[in-house]
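Thread title: Can someone regenerate the structure for this chain?

I was given the following input by a collaborator and told the matching structure tokens would be attached. They weren't. Posting the sequence so someone can regenerate them.
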Amino acid sequence: MRSHRTRAAVCVTLTACALALAPTPATGTAPPENAADRALRAFLDHGPKAAVMTAAHRGQWRKAPENSLPAIRAAFADGAEIVEVDIQLSKDGVPVLMHDETLERTTNGTGRVADRTVAQLRALRLRVGLGGRQAALTRHRVPTLADAMKEARTRGLVNLDQAWREREAVMGVLKQTGTVRNGVFKSRAAVPEVRAFRARHRDALYMHLVDDDNAGAVKEFGKERPPAFEVVFDDAEDEVAGPAFLKGVRGTGRVWINSMRDEFAAGHTDEASLIDPARGWGRLIGTYGATVIQTDNVEALRTYLAKGPVNKVPPGAVRIQGEAYAPGKDGVTHHDTDPGNRGDGPGRPGEGVDICDHDGAVAVCWMRGTEWLTYTVDVPRTGDYTLKARVSSPYSPAGTYRLTVDRGPASGPVRVANTTAHHAFVLQGSGVTRRLDRGRHTLRISLDDKVPQNWNLDHLQLEPVRR
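Best answer:
Regenerated them for you:
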């Protein structure tokens, strides 16, 4: 029987080496397997029983700035096996983590990333979450790719987005940090170009992006297909969304599908999944054969994969969708200052309330001062209830509202906090508590006048106060 060392020495690809890690009697016990070992083994497994893997888009940006070291740590801690980061090159040729080519959205800097040295970039502070010019600054700094790969070395894999153009510089970082097996390169480059890179770096992990424009690339790879394909489709009728195409991909590798935005997977999004997984993650897995899902909702996806439906209404609570305001005329059940529906969502015919569809989250939008909405709600039992609202806004201040129950006195102003993007919804407490008897009640949300108002309302939630 060959020794472990002999088998490792004759490996010619990362895949083969990964399969040769089992201990043998000649060498004794292998080193303990860590999370990155398990993630690599899983990524290379495309068998019929391969578990669905979770990839965190820009890290866990709901808990730390996107593309930051704490966002990477939080993503892995929350169960992601893969973390996606974006890469730009500094003026002095150092790969750093940054999605945009410019600095304004995510840092307190200005100008192009490529015009700043790595020392200058490291001095900048990152903004909360998805950033935006009105998002608060944090104490966290712009990391280099080397910093990020060291964080991932024992934790999991890293999807190296926007890295293909600087692939040799990026590969140099992976070799320097001992993380070649952690980094997943990605492109939609011509197949000969990809073959040349993989021939130079036979230990590199690679994933090819395909849509209807380059669907033929899958067959062009022949027997040297990469271990995964990122499949992008904005319509269920697209060729790459067809059963035959996906079966062909699934037969030799993993099917990676992004669930963050409508255009990545024909509307089967994170937000749709939070309403009904059959509209999102469930459909991606059951119909399209996804074995890697990249998400903005790491914890919710991990919970769904382990336990089923997520985002359930808490025990004893009542949830009211923002667009489900009481039927009636303007001035009676609602008031909107704009004529017609300014949003792109399913507004009611003949009514002017603005309804938007933010990648599956149908929400009241274009909020303006003096507007108000009335809701009817059935309370299951008598008790004290507090109001929460799932909202989004990239602005500071975003706005304020007041709550009135059953025509009683209005509450004080409730401040809506910046969530860093229109599509970044967060359930925020109001601090307003009311004693409600069992039965039907009327709630009115009124927007203050003469203060900035620019936020979106997904749903309201009355939750019992636990004593």
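Residues 387 and 462 are 5 Å apart (CA to CA).
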